[in-house]
Amino acid sequence: MLASSIAALLSLAGQSCAWQISAIILGTFILEDAATVLAATQAAAGAVPIGVALGSLYAGIVLGDLGLYGLGYLSSRIGWLRRILPPRRQDAVRAWLRGRVFRVVFVSRFLPGLRLPTYTTCGFLGADLRQFILAAVIATTIWTSLLFVISLWFGRVLLDHLGAWRWAGAIGFAAFVIIAGRLAASGVRSAQR
User: Fold this and answer.
1) Could you give the CA distance from residue 132 to residue 134 in angstroms, rounded to a whole number?
2) DSSP code of residue 45
3) In the chain, where does DSSP find H-type helix?
4) How far apart (Å, rounded) are the C-alpha atoms in residues 153 and 50?
5) Which of 70, 139, 157, 182 is placed for a possible disulfide with 109 were both Cys, Cβ 3.0 to 4.6 Å?
6) Rounded CA separation 21/45 (Å)
């Protein structure tokens, strides 16, 4: 499972701050929420400073968001991909998106399953990058901080009650967060139909 891969990365990082930062950032590229839960669990155990964990999470998630924007932008430069969305439709969506970039990006952070299509579409259509970055940073700060605080508390509970078995609990909690997100995304897609 991917959550255990992230846990393994954090374990290998040991006490090296640079390795911890790298492991957490890399973990966000694998699964953001699992990386957040596991970094918070490590912070609860005292293995990673809270500031290092949160800063690395913020950096990794925003870099990932920018990467999705960049993939959309690069896709718009490939002829056969550009033709998937007719120019007239591109202009209509671009016009609708103008002035709404911040709100659209901000809201998509909190609705499971919308980040990939929203962020790549923003890049594809050349949405205002400053508004995109501002929304991504603010939404990431809110969402990640909230999940981190909950996970930090849960990590302390796991540490107090499970000791050496806390990793099993942390991986289980990360799996729960991932599954809950997937179920919520399914619900959003069903509601859209």
Assistant:
1) 6
2) T
3) 2-13, 17-30, 32-44, 50-75, 79-82, 87-97, 101-110, 115-124, 129-162, 166-192
4) 12
5) 139
6) 16
Q: Yes or no: say if 124 and 97 are a contact pair by the CB < 8 Å rule.
A: no
User: pLDDT tens digit string along 76-133?
Assistant: 999 888 888 888 888 888 999 999 999 999 999 988 789 999 999 999 999 999 999 9
In the DSSP assignment, the letter for residue 47 is S
Contact of 76 with 125, CB cutoff 8 Å: yes
CA distance 106 to 152: 24
Other C-beta atoms within 10 Å of 61: how many? 26
**Closest by Cα among 101, 94, 19, 93 to 65:** 101
Cα–Cα distance measured from residue 191 to residue 184, given in angstroms and rounded to the nearest whole number? 10
